[in-house]
Amino acid sequence: MAIRQKIPKALAPCILEVERKFRSLAVRQLTQRGGTPPFQTLHALPLQTVRDTYYDKAGLLSSAGAWIRRRNGVWEAKIRKGGDFTNSQFEELHEVGDIAAYVERITGVQAGEREDFGLVTMADFITTRETWIADNEFHIVRDNMDFGHEVGEVELQQTLEGKGGEALSEVEKRAEMQRMDKRITEFMTRYSWAFADGQPIGKLTAYFKKMGNTSSSLAR
User: Fold this and answer.
1) What domains appear along the chain, each with residue ranges and CATH number?
2) Per residue in 97-131, pLDDT tens?
3) Does residue 122 contact residue 56 with C-beta atoms inside 8 Å?
4) In DSSP terms, which residues pair with 50 in a beta bridge?
5) What span, in angstroms and rounded, lies between the C-alpha atoms of 84 and 74?
6) Do 209 and 30 form a contact (C-beta atoms < 8 A)?
7) Given 3-state DSSP classes, what are the helix, strand and coil percentages for the chain, each rounded to the nearest 5?
8) How far apart are CA 36 and CA 197, in angstroms?
9) CB 50 within 8 A of CB 69
10) Which of 68, 80, 72, 85 is nearest to 23 (CA)?
11) Of 10, 88, 96, 144, which sees the most CB atoms within 10 A?
């Protein structure tokens, strides 16, 4: 009788995202040579229209630092791993099974994609998004929401895989995100002419304030 060898399940790549918010651009239009020093490179991406629907269950996910959303019909989960309101560090989940497992771990609800993972809608809005890629890797984003709010972000994203079939440890993830955050800080300091001073207000915070929702304290 042949012995069937067990094949280990492939590990999904780990997607890390680090972002720093800014209130608005300090220039009317972002261009490569709009200030000193100029960007090494600057490439504008096509204008996007994004519909985001955010979900939660009695604030459990927000309290855990997680945001589950459906962006233009595609499910995403952003799980906070560090940072604060202005500079945030996340691990992103895109596989439906991974999102369902995470939601069940936090809420205790076992439900699939068709049941919205047992969650209810807490926010729904449309964003007009301008994006530039600066110095070949830093994403500069300016978002204008349909409820009259603007906020920007500088983002770095890394897709990593564990070594030897082992998943990355939380220590390894945090160390990598700290390096990414340091690079964003240096980038924004170098090109400070592009970013306006002032405290940024996140899109969910602004949305809840507009709607008179007390959940704004949990927003990002």
Assistant:
1) 14-25+36-213 (2.40.320.10)
2) 999 999 999 999 999 999 999 999 999 999 999 99
3) yes
4) 127
5) 26
6) no
7) 25, 35, 35
8) 17
9) no
10) 85
11) 88
The answer to whether the CB of 110 falls within 8 A of the CB of 104 is: yes
- What tokens were used for 95? 């596989």
Share of the chain above pLDDT 70, in %: 88
Counting Cβ atoms within 10 Å, is residue 70 exposed (0-12), middle (13-18) or buried (19+)? Answer: middle
Token readout for 59 is 């604030």
Dihedral angle over CA of 145, 146, 147, 153, nearest 10? 0
User: What is the radius of gyration, based on Cα positions, of the chain?
Assistant: 19
pLDDT band at residue 216 under the 50/70/90 scheme: very low
CA distance 181 to 175: 10
